[in-house]
Amino acid sequence: MSSRSRLTVSDIISYLEDDDDVLEADVYVTPPENFDKSDEDSGNEESTDINCLSRHQLLAEAELRAKVSVEGRIEEIEHQEFQEDPIPTKLHDPPPKKNTEQNAKQKGHVNFKVGSDEIKRFIGILLLSGYNGVARYRMYWEQSIDCHHPGVAACMSRNRFEELLRIYHACDNTNIQPGDKFCKVRPLWELLNRKWLKYYPGDRNLSIDESMIPYFGKHPTKQHIHGKPIRFGYKVWAICTRLGYLIYGEPYQGASTGNTHPSFGVGGSVVLDLISKLPPGKYSFYMDNFFTSIPLLSEIKSLGHDATGTIRGNRVENAPLKDVK
């Protein structure tokens, strides 16, 4: 049995400052046993500014109750005690920094180190390359006036970027989920979903549809959808606001993995899975005929929402329509 200690106000403040997945938190401070040793705040007693707390208050025992966003769900956590590490364990996967260093060691680069800021700069260059494209990455560092990018060159050296490009890893190779075809990017994708949900602007009229990410390489989930603006790439089931803000997305892995509600089919399963990720409330959903069915609309209504969608002629359930079209 390891020794157990009480949380202090200082421990809780450090935890809240480091974890931006916390949506709401209450801190309950235990009164001191000897009131003669307590001292006054350095500021207004009605103030909630943590900078005004005294030493005795910062070291006082306390209890944390918080609401956090975990993979799109809102969960309540409670921390009264901890073992060994004074900061409660994070609820999400290890950061890319840790997994990248672990991958480097597995490849024989035992002295490889990378900082969180360096990882952010590396990803920033990748994002920039998506809209400021060049024939090859090295052109960003060339001195010719027509392709040199001073921002990229000042951000990171070319050799360091290529080293990170070889070693960067988003997942933990020793803890890969079997059957997940996107396991290599799953921690990064889950992080994005948490952030999209956290900053969701709160619109109630939402669109559910598929979205394509262009890709021309080899991967078992690559799709070809004829007639789409992006014909080759990864298909993502997405729920968005009317202005195009992506609230939650799930990469498509095949019909065998997407049929989580067999009675509603793949399309209905996608809709119900995406709806389940939203914060509590009443919504109006809009979808095309791939998703819409009478049983699905009934289920959405039973959940307290509205839905509008086009429907295929073989799904009208013998409704008394004058014309199916």
* Secondary-structure arrangement, i.e. CATH architecture of the largest domain: 2-Layer Sandwich
Terminal residue distance:
70 Å
Helix count from the secondary structure assignment:
10
The assigned structural class equals: alpha+beta
Topology-level CATH name of the largest domain: Nucleotidyltransferase, domain 5
Gross morphology is: globular
Please, how many domains? 3
Radius of gyration: 25 Å
Order of helices and strands: EHEHEEEHHHHHEEEEHHEHE
CATH class of the largest domain: Alpha Beta
Overall mean confidence score, pLDDT: 82
How much of the residues is beta strand, in percent? 15-25%
Kindly state the percentage of residues in helix.
25-40%
How many distinct beta strands?
11
Stretches with pLDDT under 50, minimum 5 residues = 38-47, 81-94
| Main β-sheet description | 6 strands, mixed
GO molecular function: sequence-specific DNA binding
Pfam families: DDE_Tnp_1_7
Organism: Spodoptera litura
Protein name: PiggyBac transposable element-derived protein 3-like
